[in-house]
Amino acid sequence: MIKPGSTIGIIGGGQLGRMMALAAKEAGFKIIVLDPVPDCPCAQVADGQITAPYNDEAALRELGERCDVLTYEFENIDYETLKKATGFAHVPQGAELIRITQNRIFEKEAVAKAGVRVAPYRIVENAADLKEAVGEIGYPCILKTARGGYDGKGQITLRHEGDFKETDPLLAHGACVLEKMIPFTKELSVIITRNETGETSLFPVVENIHHNHILHQTIAPARVENTVKKEAEQLALKVAEQLHLTGTLAVEMFLEADGTLYVNELAPRPHNSGHYSIEACSISQFGQHIRAICNWPLRKVELLKPAVMNNLLGQHVERALTQIPYQPEWSVHLYGKKEAKFQRKMGHITVLTEEIEETLLSLEQSGVWQDVQKRSEAAVND
Ligand code: ADP
Ligand code: MG
């Protein structure tokens, strides 16, 4: 067990690192973050920063020397470098989880091996493969780069042959997967945590609403039948088992009208759809992650009250700030990012509520997310 007073090193200094650090500091840990951007969101709450690229081996070695345990806040760390780090530092999550989840091909293979359904897909490396794959999968389908995508980056939806012209940059990036578009009724996610001893905990199954491929809103618990929840939990457990998880794994899923569940994507870390847990659960996903990597016994996760979480992207921040005086029930989180760029995740708000539908309406009426509403109205009118 890693004791309070010890130092935790976090690779990556964005909002996930920041919220991990805040949870760890509550328990008396010290934090050093490795990130190339000085004064990044995590550094603002950490005890120290090593300002260097994530894959700088000397920097990682220094982090290992100064810390008692290392974790990471994102999956795009260089696998070989992290693997080396497991030789000179304590990295309870290991490097294998990163190797698999940073490549959609390996990830889908691992999920399928766990006996869990993924959307039909083909591996595509060039224009000829793509044509053949589209012939097999059919329209509509989605081409995704195997590596390096996030928040919809590195993805193109194909509805007819005319869309092929957009695919060159993706194929130039390297291997891709072509996936069938799943006509889902809901997107769900489950966050699962496991410590080194092998104790496992599950956060409630939640419902996620995306706009332009970016998470807009999470509703906890998901408004689905209990049988669906149970199955979603079982799927997450199977995948975690297959991956020999230590740490946190977020499992994103699609639910079809007939109740079929598919695993869409995995994230080997706390996840945007788990931010509501800071206020709504007996322990947050960040607190549980810290317990897991320090090999503390895991807390029993209980949803204390239903919740809605809305993301604040660059275009929402100013309007959200003007709402603060009128919204006493909003727990406001801002990540300390300097520039409020369009579509950039700047913060989020969480509302605890027994009346989900009323809360959804009140969030809509606040006008903060009017760009999202305009788009959904346009979609309805189409
Ligand atoms: P990332 O989160 O890394 O950007 P995802 O694969 O999770 O990539 O895709 C982002 C979003 O795009 C999903 O949450 C979903 O809304 C939509 N999407 C992705 N793949 C599919 C698919 N096969 N069928 C339907 N929608 C999809
Ligand atoms: Mg995703």
TrEMBL record:
Which PROSITE patterns does this one have? ATP_GRASP (PS50975)
Q: Name the residues that bind ATP.
A: 104, 144, 149-155, 179-182, 187, 210, 264-265
Name residues in a coiled coil. none
Task: Kindly state a single biological-process term from the GO annotations of this entry.
Answer: 'de novo' IMP biosynthetic process
What the entry lists under InterPro entries is as follows: ATP-grasp (IPR011761), ATP-grasp_carboxylate-amine (IPR003135), ATP_grasp_subdomain_1 (IPR013815), PreATP-grasp_dom_sf (IPR016185), PurK (IPR005875), PurK_C (IPR040686), PurT/PurK_preATP-grasp (IPR054350), Rudment_hybrid_motif (IPR011054)
Q: Which GO terms describe its molecular function?
A: 5-(carboxyamino)imidazole ribonucleotide synthase activity; ATP binding; metal ion binding; phosphoribosylaminoimidazole carboxylase activity
Q: Which residues form the signal peptide?
A: none
Recall the taxonomic lineage recorded for the source organism.
Bacteria, Bacillati, Bacillota, Bacilli, Bacillales
Which is one Pfam family of this protein? Answer: RS_preATP-grasp-like
Instruction: Give the family this protein belongs to, as stated in its UniProt record.
Output: Belongs to the PurK/PurT family.
Report the Gene3D superfamilies cross-referenced here: 3.40.50.20, ATP-grasp fold, A domain, ATP-grasp fold, B domain
State what protein this is by name: N5-carboxyaminoimidazole ribonucleotide synthase
Pathway listed for it is:
Purine metabolism; IMP biosynthesis via de novo pathway; 5-amino-1-(5-phospho-D-ribosyl)imidazole-4-carboxylate from 5-amino-1-(5-phospho-D-ribosyl)imidazole (N5-CAIR route): step 1/2
The alphabetical list of record keywords is:
ATP-binding, Ligase, Nucleotide-binding, Purine biosynthesis
Q: Which reaction does it catalyse?
A: 5-amino-1-(5-phospho-beta-D-ribosyl)imidazole + hydrogencarbonate + ATP = 5-carboxyamino-1-(5-phospho-D-ribosyl)imidazole + ADP + phosphate + 2 H(+)
